[in-house]
DUF2029 domain-containing protein
Amino acid sequence: MCPMPSAETTQASAREPEPVRPTTVDPVAASGSELIGGPVGRRALLGTSWWTPVRVIALVAIGMFALGLVQKAPCYNGAWFFGASSQYTHACYSDIPHLYNGRGFVDGLIPYFDRLPGDMEYLEYPVLTGVFMEVASWLTPGSGSIQHQEQWYWMVNAGMLMVCAAVIAVCVTRTHARRPWDGLLVALAPAFALTATINWDLLAVALTAAAMLMWSRGRSLAFGVLLGLATAAKLYPLFLLGPLLVLCWRAGKWRDFGRALGGAVVAWLVVNLPVMLFAFEGWSKFYTFSQERGVDFGSFWLIMAQNSSDPLSTETVNTLATLLMLLCCVGIAVLTFTAPRRPRFAQLAFLIVAAFILTNKVYSPQYVLWLVPLAALARPRWRDFLIWQACEVAYFLGIWMYLAYTTSGDAHKGLPTDGYHWAIGAHLLGTLYLCVIVVRDILMPDRDVVRRTGEDDPSGGVLDRAEDVFVLGPAARPPRHAGHFEGPPVEWGKEKAVEGSL
């Protein structure tokens, strides 16, 4: 005879909310599940086997990453070395093998301390990314031809970046505790697999995803430390402190913000200060290069420059891009203080990074990696996510076809300038589309797919279900509380009219 559950166990089970099943709340997920047997049933026992969501999603992420490596096979087998245009026509370009020789790793030069031959002078990457590159060079066999060493260097980096990809998928899966399957958005994102090994961005993305997980668990100091390390690897994580500031301002969580800021500053200094003190010129190369770099691929600034007889100077573009970014920051702050309900941290994190991408003077195809985890947390809706991903894949193909056109001489194989401008437009419109949807969710919280299943701010940590202490505009007139929705998840099949408007 099976033992009867105790009263305490029964009460705990009744209090603990059930995980959200995407096949019951998302029509696209339900349709896609037909490939593996259809939507999960009401009587299914979830989390009772070894195949937990975290393990499944980590394995899927590794599998998709491996498919991305296969996609680079034409370049690995010769296109990186024997033809400038063939690495573009096969859409398999990567900076990694080229910079092994071009930045002195093959010669054992120490980043930031040893001057490089040529115009670059020093490595133009932040310090923690430079450390990552250097460690990979230590693990690369130093024997054989330069081509053989570059192939090994790419493979070593690919292995290290695969670990970063798995960390990102796991962190996103665990950030929203009731929505673990949203991590599949990251694991299955086609642009993620295609761009993962173009550069070293996954290091900063992994640290940022881990920081978001720590904040969701209320560990503000750990969040700050990880965000400081992420900023030491790439600049964009720094912008997450802006949304966090205004959210903590609205909720009165100044102590937690102070811990996060202090942890970020200390962690960034621990990484950067030694290089700043002993190799300042090499350390500052990343910042001077970013400032002096002209208008480049992927930005609307490039469309303007290539269609103008008198393009703007680099200094003017820097000023205008900075002003546009500041305007976006002000807009996000106003949105935060006036929204009828305090926005979720992931929503504002996505908006601020997207604003930086849209206003910046360059958009490399791997920059999409910055947004994928944030998009999965901000708008975990398969339809909108896939629309955006389709636009990013179009840009991924467009830039390589354009470079093939410009490097193939009189053959003109690839995409001409006008076609490339359409590819840039697809990227810009896709990102703007997702931004508009996220802003709409903030202004109309009943349409937020996370809050419609009973959550407030699962990635918000101390902000989750916190009282508001500073609100502006119409939001200040109702009682100052979050007004959380406490109802059960809404199944899409029962609310088709409402879901159709989402």
Q: What stands out?
A: Residues 146-175 form the longest helix (30 residues).
